[in-house]
Amino acid sequence: MNIVISRLAQAVTVALLVGAATFAMMRSLPGDAAWRIAAGRYGYDNVDAAAAEAVRAELGLGGHWFPAFLSWMGDLLRLDFGRSLVSGQPVIDEIAHQLGASLWLALAAVGLSLVIGPPLGILAGLRPGSLFDRALLVISAAFKAVPQFLMALILILVLSVQMGWLPAAGYGQPRHFILPALALALGLAAVNARIARDAMASVAAQPFYAFAEWKGLSRAQVLWRHGLRNVSVPLLTYLGLQFVLLVEGVVVIESNVGWPGIGHALVHAVFARDVPMVQGTALMLGLGFVLVNALIDLLAARIDPRGAR
Amino acid sequence: MTLLSADDITIRDGATRLLAPVSLEVSPGEPLVILGETGSGKSLLAQAMMGTLPEGLRVGGTVTIGAQHLRAEDRAAFKGLWGRQIAVLPQEPWLSLDPLMRAGPQVAEAHRLVRDLPAQAAREQAMSDLAALGLEHAFRHYPHELSGGMAQRVAIAAARAGGAPIVIADEPTKGLDAARRDDVAALLLVALAESGGLVVITHDLALARQIGGRLIVLRAGKVVETGATAQVLADPQAAYTRALIAADPETWPRRTAQQPAGAPVVEARDLTLSRGGQRLVRGVSLSLHAGQILGVTGPSGCGKSSLGDALLGLLPPQAGEVRRASDLAPTALQKLWQDPVAAFPRTRSLGQTLGDVAHLHKAPKGRIDALLARLRLAPELLRRRPAAVSGGELQRLALLRAMLARPRFLFADEPTSRLDPITQAEIIGFLAELADEDGMAIALVSHDPVLIDRTADQICRLDRSVSETGTPQQVDLRHATA
Amino acid sequence: MTTTTLSRPWPSGRIIGAAILTLIAAFAILGPVIVPGSPFAQSLMKSLAGPEPAAPFGYDHLGRSLYHRLVHALRLSPLIALAAVATAGAAGLVLGTLAALRGGWVERVLVVLADALLALPGLLMVLIVLAIMPGTALGFWAGLSLVLWVEFFRLTRATARATLAGPAVQAARLLGFGWPYVFRTHLWPEVAPLMLTAAAFGTATAIMGIAALGFVSVGMRAPTPELGLMMVELLPYWREAPMALLTPVLATFALLLGLTLLAGGHRT
Amino acid sequence: MPLSQNVFAAALVGLCLAFPAVAQTRIDVAAPFEIQSPEPSTTGHIFLRMGIVETLVDADPEGRLLPALATEWSASEDGLTWRFTLRDGVMFHDDTPMTPDAVVNALEIARAKPGPLAGLPIAAITSEEGAIVITLTEPRAALPAFLAEARGQILAPAAYGVDGQAVAVIGTGPYRLTELAPPLSLRATAFEGYWGDAPHAADVSYTAVSRAETRALMAESGDADFVFNLDPATVTRLSRSDAVSVHSVAIPRALLLKVNAAHPLLDSAEARRALSLAIDRAGLAQAVLRYPEGADQLFPPAMGDWHDATLPPLSYDPEAARALLGELGWTPGADGILTRDGARFALTLTTYPDRPELPLVAAVLEQQFREVGVDLTINSTNSSEIPAGHQAGTLELGLLARNFALVPDPIGTILSDYAPVGDWGAMGWENAEIVALAQALARGEGSTEDRARITAILQAELPVIPIAWYQQTLAARAGLDGVVIDPWERSFGLPGLRLAP
Q1: Which of A69, B119, D23, D39 is the most buried (most CB within 10 A)?
Q2: Which residues of C touch B339 (CB under 8 A)?
Q3: Domains and their CATH numbers in chain C
Q4: Which of C172, C175, C189 sits opposite B346 (nearest CB)?
Q5: Where are the alpha helices (DSSP H) in B176-303?
Q6: Helix axis angle, C188-215 relative to C136-165, nearest 10°?
Q7: B179 and B286 share a domain?
Q8: CA-nearest residue of chain B to A223?
Q9: How far is CA C225 from CA A27, C131, C219, C246, in A?
Q10: What is the ipTM of this complex?
Q11: D53-172 domain in CATH 3.40.190.10?
Q12: Which residues of chain A lie closer than 8 angstroms to B109, CB-CB?
């Protein structure tokens, strides 16, 4: 119950923050908003005074900021995100259109990172201080230090241009997934591995872990029955926090490889000053975080009944 | 017949010898108690017999378990014996149960995986094990839903499910109050009766007395004395054993009661306290005069610390009132904590911390040195960090720090519960001295009713339902141990 | 500060990290002293030419010295990042301590605000602030500060809550010490190492963010020498001049690796 | 946890197995333009290029107008009444016939929106039997060319919503839209009811890839068959590849410096000429654009009569530039920047990164101007800052790429940019002669000499300073035959493309 209330408060605050920030963005567009929007809508070859005038007339820009702010927030609370300034389509439709692509990419990336990171981390955590553990530390630090856009760049150069194994960009077929998902997953896995390693090392150092062995269980039995379950809780919680990292990665990578997702839309919306789209996508990402973490809270509470006070 | 024997066990850490050659035997029906203080090597000895010594330590000697002869250094060879030949009882049962698994399966998995019972049979066996310990309802509980005593029983059932004939218990009463200690002793004796072999490693004289059998007294890695437990405790030969027994509160003389003189330093009327929404103390009245020691006792969680904090003014009472003498400076109320390490700033040297206090209270030069001498502390200690000083020394330094503020009331919250008996006797001795010589009023909290009985001028016994105050003669302390 | 700092030796990873960062800083500060030159001066004839004494790393597509562009890039984003981390760290420290000390609605409001910011991707906030603020560097500073303070706040608040509730602080209060003393001797020594870790991570995050936005062409603008921008500018020429592209790539990697190692441990 | 790992792994593998790469029967196009919506005023050019929609008039690479949906057209004596005969038997993709009323409806909606049609002096558009009639208030000889522009595309009445915004793309082209997924992709398939020849390739797809490097990579890796608008830098690289063939053609687009001629530093033709002399066009073109040469006059050779090969070229001579500025009273200050009466010769150059070469050219210009003592501050921002700055009079210098052939007859752009001023053309500079000449040309009265005269005036007065002429480059997969680049940027030529077996 507590979880639900605190996550609800978080969701409302996220909405208010996004609303206020995007309103400020709308109001403070350098230069004239109508011009900006016209440029986004008609392209640089065709933006001229007539186009800007058409936009100004259509959107009714101007007026005092306070009533505008109230009506802006009012629309937001009624979940009316308005229409994209650029395409004229309802923002909600555009997002619905793009969310799927991003969701699949994010899921593939998280899935891949979970296949790579935690098993290595658990192996290292079982033998803290070993050569393998130290090697993993170095490797994960190195991978963590590679920004996702750089990872994508390297993968494109190596896997798709040099080797010709994977398409450099595109969307629609499973083979298009591998490169962007891998670019995201390697960074996530580097961190996952560290979290799993630390969790495993700390679980293995707990009295109950040794006690399980003293009961006569084999190492593998102890790991399977007592290790993994205990490691999964911090890992799961961290995955929730990692969501933000993932979203940032999705934003950058989507722009890199031309992925028709919400992150790509966001960058373009920011660039074209399409504020309703910025608001809609930002809200979707923020609320997505809250939702994912609420689900993880509930899942973690199921696995670890101590948390549910 | 011998169930377990260890021959010439030695343990070294590089060039340092941690354990001189020790040999011992465990026979069916005759428990073996290894008694010693922290750092005596008793736990290392136990670990050597179980094959759980850290890799960094060199171990020599042989261990014979049943028909198997093992070289102590061959740690891996012991693994196969766990659960099957040796059952190990953990120190802290709460921490020894997997927090994310229900109690029943933690017992059943040993039946299934160690004794190869089918899943259903293992579950039924676990159920009957728990039922035998009076825990039939706990099968589906998670460890955090169990009390400490229940967790201990579950742990014992889980440890013994593999059917090992030898039970090794390492400090099974660490941190337990007297009532729980007696429970554990009884459980161990039941285990002895069923399994045959029992080794108990402890620093607790009372537990040793209850277990009986044979006794090995260890000090600084050497055997000081061996013999039948009852005989050694009744007629100790070695000086160290005598000191150990003398430090047992049971053997202390009762304090000569101080008559109240003048106005009370601290006074409580109909005090009701609650913390975190839970009512802890109800309707306590007491008054404490200069030079008096108030003993506060009761089971854990009964509000002993809260009472002290209320007297100090750190916890506002829910009802009733606390009155302090009107001429009392705010800093004349001081406190000692159970864990002295946590009571000092971690990253500063003790000398800096004490210097700051002396400076704040404008203590004359040499005051710290004088107090160091009085508390028999070496001045070199001041150069160290809190974590680099032994618990007994640090508790005395905490006392020193409190004294720099010239307190007239001191609240000592379980100041000796983590200390060895000899150190405990020393600290309590200092507290009594402060009351007598400096006229300090002291509230001393302990879970050990015997200690309170011997030390206090008046006693406040708290329980979840009742509380009574009075002189040691008036308050029935046995009630607290029942 | 009269407290002795932690004398525990640093783990080797941290030392290596600090060494890498020292080298990079020395390069960024002393680079133009060793080989004088300008990051903007062009000589179109030398487009993508190889190294020579006046340009030890060769030339970019406009014939600008990569050495000098790198020197300036290695000043720009670290400076913005450090400024943002300093602002965020100070704000986080003050607000975190305040929340732990005051509790009540002050704490609740701050926590809810921090939680909400935590839910929003940092790059998004930076993008929005960039759109609002005039000037890219200023926008980055403001946006990154806004994103980064949360981490410092959470760390400080958690540590302060634990520390303030502990016996050591209770003892200090009973002994009559004031809050400044408690902060100096109890809180700061506990918070400082965590702050160092968070600051290293925060700096890395900020540098990564500036580079990532530069790379997708919504960050620093040409012709400013910035790591991400240099990469995207040189990317089309990577087959002709792979070393030219590798120069900012390796520099970015070294910078971030140094910071990651310096941070030690990981964010939780 | 391990369970979910397995599920993920299985899902990933399963996905890969379930959709093997499809055998190639489709031409995949990659270009930088993003799809916004079915609306012609914003996205119409993509539908036109893809052969999904058509206009009344078409144009060949030389700019000669060809019949399309209109088979022929004629103007009345006074040039005010134009009659366009419509092609018979044209069906929209929804299988309704293209009637004159439908055409009038489409054109009326188009000219109510911003675009070239909106600027025409149209009095009325009416329908006749098998034709439409456009009545003008003043003669406009280039009217048919205006109707070749993408925004004059003819959609079925059902394509428009009540507010005139297009809600669907129902055109008449050889390809019928089957899937529209803004912002990045669309698919189309051959339209069986097409009036002309059936296209060779049955299916086409379009992917918007805004990054030039990524487009080049897609061309190299074979992810796209037809990659439009290559980054100058990648042209060299791609031309060495066997997998693709690179095609390029000069197009009527120029990279130029828009000058605020009302600005005190720039109000004399000498000052503007000095700036022009400071620009090393050849070096710039080779290093940044990878073209062999720069622009020595405003209009590129691709613009026929507008280009005058006999005109003395703009040259690079920093010495002369310094001398010219010296004559205007400018003397170098301590930092090398010119000063006059205490004022520094410092200007702000506004440009936009939408075309990636612009900020680079700006960076080069900054250096080259510094050589002659002119201090340039670069403001790389939104493209709208240039027309907005023009309107507000605050723009100093603008670096931009101007398309002279939004309409296949450059007179449209000349009129809007130089007769007398325009958002993307002259600023603070008015020349009555050019206005008169351009208006005459628009009415259809001018001659080749008049065009050369306009070019000569612009060359002498330099209201904008030409820097380079663009080339359009694209990469086609090896084996893709029939590639033709349309310099007017109207068509990808997909129906004529043949997939090698």
Answers
A1: D39
A2: 167
A3: 12-33+58-263 (1.10.3720)
A4: C189
A5: 178-195, 205-211, 229-234, 239-246
A6: 150
A7: no
A8: B98
A9: 31, 21, 12, 15
A10: 0.76
A11: yes
A12: 215, 217, 221, 225
Q: Which structural domain, as residue segments, surrounds residue B423?
A: 251-470
Parallel/antiparallel/unpaired status of strands D397-403 and D346-351:
parallel
Which pLDDT band holds residue A31 (cuts at 50, 70, 90)?
low
The mean-pLDDT minimum among B177-181, C142-146, D28-32, D303-307 falls in B177-181
Answer with the one of B207, B227, B249 that is the final residue of a domain: B249
Instruction: For residue C116, give the nearest of A10, A30, A195 by CB distance.
Output: A10
Contact residues, C window 171-230, toward D, CB-based 8 Å cutoff: 217, 221-223
Task: Please state the pTM of the whole predicted model.
Answer: 0.79
Say yes or no: B233 and B259 in one domain.
no
Residues of chain A with Cβ-Cβ distance to C128 below 8 Å are 21-22, 25, 270, 278, 282
Smallest CA–CA distance, residue C124 to chain D, in Å, is 19
Q: Are strands B409-413 and B333-336 parallel, antiparallel or unpaired?
A: parallel
Are the beta carbons of C185 and B335 separated by less than 8 Å? no
Of C128, C216, C249, the CB nearest to A25: C128
Q: How far apart are CA B423 and CA B411, in angstroms?
A: 19
- Same domain for B139 and B276, yes or no, is no
B75 and B206 in a single domain? The answer is yes
Q: B249, B280, B295: which is the final residue of a domain?
A: B249
- Residue of A147, A157, A267 with shortest CB distance to C218: A267
The highest-level CATH class for domain D22-37+178-243+478-501 is alpha beta
Residues of chain B under the 70 pLDDT cut: 1, 175, 464-467, 473, 475-482
Q: Report how far residue D21's alpha carbon sits from residue D40's, in angstroms, rounded to the nearest whole number.
A: 33
Q: Please state whether beta strands B4-13 and D346-351 pair in parallel, antiparallel, or not at all (unpaired).
A: unpaired
Task: Check B357 against C170: CB less than 8 A apart.
Answer: no
The shortest CB-CB distance from D1 to any of A94, A173, A228 is to A228
Q: Lay out the sheet containing D175-181: strands in order across.
A: D175-181, D185-190, D203-208, D26-31, D226-228, D464-477, D244-259, D397-403, D346-351, D375-380
Number of domains within chain B: 2
What residue of D is the nearest CA neighbor of A107? D8
Which phi-psi region, left, alpha or beta, contains residue B276 (left: φ > 0; alpha: ψ -120 to 50)? left
Prior bond to D420 cis, omega within 30?
A: yes
The CATH number covering residue B417 comes to 3.40.50.300
Residues B202 and B114 in one domain: yes
pLDDT (tens digit, 9 = 90+) per residue, D238-249?
Answer: 888 888 899 988
- Nearest chain A CA: its distance from D426 CA (Å): 13
DSSP state of B212: -
Burial of B58 (0-12, 13-18, 19+ CB in 10 A): middle
Q: Is D217 on the interface with C (CB under 8 A)?
A: no
Tokens 């999705």 identify what position? A250
A308 three-class SS: coil
Q: A183 CB near a chain D CB, below 8 Å? A: no
CB D165 within 8 A of CB D39: yes
Give C-chain residues touching A290 at CB under 8 angstroms: 119
CB contact under 8 A, B99 and A214: no
Q: Residue B479 falls within a domain, yes or no? A: no
The reply to whether B272 and B317 lie within a common domain is yes
CATH 3.40.190.10 occupies which residues in chain D? 22-37+178-243+478-501, 53-172
Contact A228 D217 (CB under 8 A): no
pLDDT of the residue at D74: 92
Q: Is residue D8 very low, low, confident or very high in pLDDT (cuts 50, 70, 90)? A: very low
Q: With contacts defined as CB-CB under 8 Å, which chain C residues touch A22?
A: 128
A113-125 tens-digit pLDDT: 999 999 999 999 9
CATH 3.10.105.10 domain locations along chain D: 251-470
The CATH class of the D251-470 domain is alpha beta
